[in-house]
Design a protein that fits this description.
Strand order of the largest sheet: 6-5-4-3-2-1-10-9-8-7
Distance between the termini: 26 Å
Radius of gyration: 15 Å
Strand content: over 45%
Helix content: under 10%
Shape: globular
Largest sheet: 10 strands, antiparallel
Number of strands: 10
Number of helices: 0
Length: 133
């Protein structure tokens, strides 16, 4: 049996906060052995947060940009697809906190994207999912 296959999904109300105004949307949460997957849409973009103890992957598709950022103790790279072409960044994780209590899941991520052309870009994203069932 594949341990990454979700056991079942639960509806959640998602709030995403970053440098922009908080955005509220609907999503789905699924637990699997060793972690969870949270999927939600903001407009045309589909976001997926796939978490295990070793790594948290954040991916986006369907909108203006597409990417998959892997956040862990090890440095990584991300290829960011835009309408103007692709850009490659080095990724350094600064924070990767997961909290779950009282029917709420909070994913706090902070990281630095670096490239010779763009320099260092620090990002912080806080995703809160409230379980509806």
């Amino acid at each position: 049996m594949d341990s990454t296959v979700p056991r079942s999904t639960r509806p959640v109300a998602v709030t995403v906060a970053s440098e922009q105004e908080p955005v509220k949307c609907d999503g789905e949460f699924a637990e699997h052995a060793g972690g969870f997957t949270l999927v939600f849409n903001m407009g045309a973009e589909k976001f997926t947060v796939a978490h295990t103890e070793a790594c948290t992957d954040v991916s986006a598709s369907g909108g203006v940009m597409s990417y998959k950022i892997s956040l862990s103790d090890k440095p990584s790279t991300v290829l960011l697809g835009t309408p103007f072409g692709e850009m490659r960044f080095a990724v350094k994780t600064l924070e990767r906190t997961i909290e779950r209590a009282d029917g709420v899941l909070r994913v706090a991520l902070k990281y630095v994207l670096s490239s010779a052309a763009a320099g260092d870009i620090e990002r912080a994203v806080d995703v809160t999912a409230r379980f509806l069932q």
